[in-house]
């Protein structure tokens, strides 16, 4: 009985995986060409007609036709040309730094500016609460309000 | 002074500082750059030392270190399978290798910015039997000042660069000069 349950569960998992893979769209060559860099001219592939860029475009189409995923195609190109072939650095390993460092710098700058503004605001002359209203003005405001409400 | 004005002044100061920093970095990079003029130095007769590399081999398993060829004369040819002039000079380089290998000459092909499979196909098509190393990302090209393919360097037995050929070696004159540089490298 247990064996039967395991077999059914296995079949279910396999069916779900196959369904997910079936439903996946194949990678788009134009999208990939915009995300990969020509190693010679250092522009994205879609902007380059260099011989190596043309060869890379052909490789991308061959791999798409062979059923490779976007990640598999990128990995294959990184294995040949190094991580510099990716227009955007990967979000793991050393490439993660390229994402985190600018975020850290921007975050630090925002905090620094906020602290500076706060510090300067405190030092403003006369700072420390609203100044008291002139008694004459106070009386006129009261009169106006009474007339308006009455 | 208002807070807004102070913030603006600080922003301007930071911007000017950043520009100055970038300028200093640019000057530093230009001053300390080692590659780029290696071919000029060699052709002036300065005998610059050949920059070291250890790279994956394409003609067989394993790696090849340039330093392991110390004591031999070396013709180092930078190429890629998609480079048309590289195809034109490939047969001549194979001939140079066959003519000189028994006298202590090694021709090394340096394939870069290329697919391994394409490079192997290229070598098979042109019957190249000399060692070929692979630097797909082109990480070491700057050490040699190589910005295009093909380029060929002649290194003497002491690891000094005797001559450099920027572009293909296909004209009779270039072929004569390359052979003359090889003779000099073998005798050095």
Chain-wise SSE layout:
The complex is a heterodimer of chains A (150) and B (188).
Chain A: H1 2-23, H2 29-35, H3 51-65, H4 70-81, H5 95-123, H6 135-149
Chain B: H1 3-32, H2 38-44, E1 54-57, E2 63-65, E3 73-79, H3 84-100, E4 105-112, H4 116-125, E5 132-135, H5 141-144, E6 151-155, E7 161-166, H6 172-187
Parallel strand pairs in B: 3-4, 4-5
Antiparallel strand pairs in B: 1-2, 1-5, 3-6, 6-7
Q: Please state the average pLDDT score of chain B.
A: 93
Low-confidence stretches of chain A: none
Determine the number of helices of chain A (DSSP H or I, runs of at least 4 residues): 6
Q: Which stretches of chain B are poorly predicted, pLDDT < 50 over at least 5 residues?
A: none
Radius of gyration of chain A: 32 Å
Cα-to-Cα separation, first versus last residue of chain B: 74 Å
Shape of chain B: elongated
Q: Based on CA inertia axes, which overall geometry of chain A fits?
A: elongated
Q: What profile does the largest beta sheet of chain B have?
A: 7 strands, mixed
What is the succession of H and E elements of chain B?
HHEEEHEHEHEEH
Largest sheet of chain A: none
Helix amount of chain B: 40-55%
Q: How many E-type strands of chain B? A: 7
Strand tally of chain A: 0
Rg of chain B to the nearest angstrom? 22 Å
Strand content of chain A: under 5%
């Amino acid at each position: 009985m247990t064996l039967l349950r395991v077999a059914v569960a296995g079949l279910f998992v396999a069916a779900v995986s196959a369904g997910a893979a079936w439903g996946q769209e194949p990678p788009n060559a134009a999208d990939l060409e915009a995300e990969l860099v020509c190693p010679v001219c250092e522009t994205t592939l879609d902007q380059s007609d260099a011989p190596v860029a043309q060869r890379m475009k052909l490789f991308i189409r061959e791999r798409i036709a062979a059923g490779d995923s976007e990640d598999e195609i990128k990995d294959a190109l990184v294995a040949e040309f190094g991580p510099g072939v990716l227009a955007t650095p990967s979000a793991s390993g050393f490439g993660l730094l390229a994402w985190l460092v600018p975020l850290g710098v921007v975050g630090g700058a925002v905090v620094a500016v906020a602290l500076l503004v706060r510090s300067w605001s405190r030092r403003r002359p006369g700072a420390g609460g609203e100044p008291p209203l002139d008694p004459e003005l106070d009386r006129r405001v009261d009169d106006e309000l009474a007339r308006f409400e009455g | 002074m208002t807070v807004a004005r102070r913030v603006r002044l600080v922003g301007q100061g930071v911007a000017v500082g950043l520009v100055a920093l970038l300028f200093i970095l640019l000057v530093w990079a230009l001053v300390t750059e080692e590659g780029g003029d290696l071919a000029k130095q060699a052709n002036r007769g300065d005998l610059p030392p050949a920059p070291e590399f250890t790279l994956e081999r394409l003609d067989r398993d394993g790696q090849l270190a340039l330093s392991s060829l110390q004591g031999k004369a070396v013709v180092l040819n930078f190429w890629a399978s998609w480079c048309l002039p590289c195809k034109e000079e490939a047969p001549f380089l194979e001939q140079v290798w066959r003519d000189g290998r028994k006298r202590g000459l090694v021709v090394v092909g340096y394939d870069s910015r290329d697919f391994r499979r394409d490079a192997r196909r290229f070598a098979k098509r042109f019957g190249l039997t000399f060692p070929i190393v692979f630097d797909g990302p082109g990480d070491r090209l700057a050490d040699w000042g190589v910005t295009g393919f093909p380029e060929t360097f002649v290194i003497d037995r002491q690891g000094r660069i005797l001559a450099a050929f920027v572009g293909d070696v296909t004209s009779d004159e270039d072929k004569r000069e390359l052979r003359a540089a090889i003779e000099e490298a073998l005798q050095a």
